[in-house]
Amino acid sequence: MLPLPSFNGEPHSYTRFNLTQNMEGDNSQVEMKLSSDMDEEAGGNGVGARLNHNSNHKPFVAQKLGRTPKNLCFMAAGIFLLFIIGYLVGYLVHRNKEVAPVCSASIVPSEGEAVREMGSPPMMDWDDVKKLLAQKLTASKLDSAFIEFTLSDHVAGSPGDEDLGNKVLNRFKEYGLKSWTDEHFVTVHDLPASNINRIVFKNSAEERLVGFLSYSATGSVKGAVLYAYYGQENDFRTLRDRNIDLSGRVVIVRAGRISFAEKVANAAKMNASAVLIYPDGDDYSFDENIQLFGHVHMGSGDPYTPGFPSFNHTQFPPVQSSGLPKILAQTITRRMATNIFRQLGGQTLPEGWKGFHKLGDVNDSIVVEVNNILTQKKIINVFGVIKGFVDADRYVVVGAQRDAWGPGFAASTVGTSILLELARSISEMVKNDGFKPRRSIVFASFTGGEYGSVGATEWLEGYLSSLGTKAFSYINLDGIVTGQKLFKVAASPLMHTLIERTLREVKVNNGLSLYSQFAKGNWELTMLEPLKMDSAAYPFLAFSGIPSISFRFTSDNPDYMYLNTKHDTREKLNFVTDRRVPQLAEQGGRFAGHIVLRLIHDHLLQMDLMKYDKIIRSQVSQINGKVVAVQRMQPTLFPKSLTVQWLISASGSFSRASRKMANDVQNSDLDDVEMCRIINDYLMSVERNFLSPYVSPRDSPFRHILLGSGPHTLKALSSHLDALRASTPEADGDLFRNQFALATWTLQGCANSLAGDIWALDNEI
Predict the structure, then answer these.
(1) Using an 8 Å Cβ cutoff, are 618 and 506 in contact?
(2) Whole-number Å distance between alpha carbons of 149 and 164
(3) Nearest Cα to 3, choosing from 678, 643, 478?
(4) How far apart are CA 193 and CA 181, in angstroms?
(5) Quick check: 746 pLDDT over 70?
(6) How is the polypeptide modified once translated (predicted)?
(7) How far is residue 219's CA from residue 373's CA, in Å, rounded to a whole number?
(8) Stated pTM of the model
(9) What average pLDDT does the structure give for the chain?
(10) Which of 33, 100, 403, 643 allows an S-S link to 156, with CB 3.0 to 4.6 Å?
(11) Bridge pairing between strands 328-331 and 274-278
(12) CA–CA separation, 167 vs 154, rounded Å?
């Protein structure tokens, strides 16, 4: 990484085209060359010889040359000629400096490609950029795209999925984008071709299941049913506090609130033998026989190639993701769940829980049989790029899921349509309207999303070394429209300031902005939500360290209920949006478009470091308070010698480095393209530096210490302190101290990276 310069307008040694330094060097070369010429003319003792002598030798030189009129004329002519040649050479050198390329990202165009400007392109006013996008991205255009890309069957790797991929590729080519595809051979769980998945409760008839959960363990178990509400961690703690033994129990939980994978992982921690997930009527008011589909991999990508890509030519030894469950998991219908609940005994429901009256007794036995089969599928991601005119090798990625369990209108069709309309609109702005983006845009159509962002994650794993240093943001278009009453955003804190500005810019109804309509005073309280693991933006952020954003129009409660079913159609989405899907898609598309265009239009990336500074100080303060409490209550586990001072010091180092960086950005010279590039590279590295270098991508792929998942995160440290304070079985003082030390040094490493030069680092720790 290049050292961070001082941004006060003074000359810098790193500047590639420093006229002062280069002109001095060029003048010395010209002077030596001319001296040599004069030496030859004067027999080696002319002007060149005089450069090596002081004034005491001048009479000797004059005497040797002679002061005849003829010699004086020759000398005058030579001096005049020397002056003219020096002036011309100096002029030409200075002119070359003026027209020299000022951007290291300038590239030589390939044959047939339009010649791009070598320097910084003329800036188009931001208001004009917004107006152009509003003119080109319209509801009517999106409506036409919905019709073209609606398909009833396009499961990942199916012929329907491949057909849609070819349509996307042809559209990219039609719009003039440089296009390519990326193949992966992934392993997934699908329904058995001959056998069936089934349940048998007590003496009831066998229930055969059509819905399924990919990556469940397979086999058959028999156990007693236990109702666990939504299957969240606090739900299982409630059951444990009632002294209910969960070992070997078949847990039945409602769908919603957290992902299927998290429900199964929570049950596995309590030693349950199986999990049954059903759509309760409080959250899903559709027909009682509708089946649910999904996956239970506590991660993303192909779980049989964790941490590395599923290319066909790779020969990795057999390995599995640590996020694969060891217990059975299966979806059932509401009708099946109701039949079970009516026959349960046991304790009454805890206060606040909804459902039937009983939790289940040890005599309420059920047999669960899962026979899913492993299948290898070829999946194809499709890409197109609009190249930048200054930093063409730095790019924002805009992506959308293409596959679905059924029609997938909200899950994939809307996002894919917006992706293509953004590509068309921006490419027309470049070709026809004179817009010249500084940086590039990569449009990505991913597949395998329903199996856990498989296509997106495999692409990240395959090109991590390049994407991690050159992709500065990911904009996720999945599930943008699932309602109309609320607007929710989940993103890296680095992007929060940019998001707020964009919310204020994008107009919706009657000239009101998104902010005015949905923020209700404080947008962070009413619109901001955590980025969930089942979002395609999550692996970009927590696995690759790329600032990411996901957003959606949605309903208050319940949310759009047809995701993860085969009934996600335009008619169903029209019902919950009052037939305003094209208009909502246009507004969502313009929100995404404004963010994309801001990131490729401005000299500096709009990344706000101080947002992370606030988050870090808050979490460190919480950890400090909990450590003091544990030391007071458990002095044997936590002696007074254990101090949080190291973590506080690391937090202070990051805070000082962030403020200095923010000040440097504020005082930077926007006309210095090379300086802007260096600043942007530093901003891009911030998210990446939050990835813990002390954990394996295979065991803990989401390595982000603030937004990731695993024992290395600051959130896990705080939870571990709660366990130590309560003396729960999972509490381990030695393990905590190890996690504490690694998290502290990861945070200090982030501060060191921002500080830049090795001699500028704060090594108080």
Answers:
(1) no
(2) 7
(3) 678
(4) 30
(5) yes
(6) Stearoylated.
(7) 11
(8) 0.84
(9) 86
(10) 403
(11) parallel
(12) 13
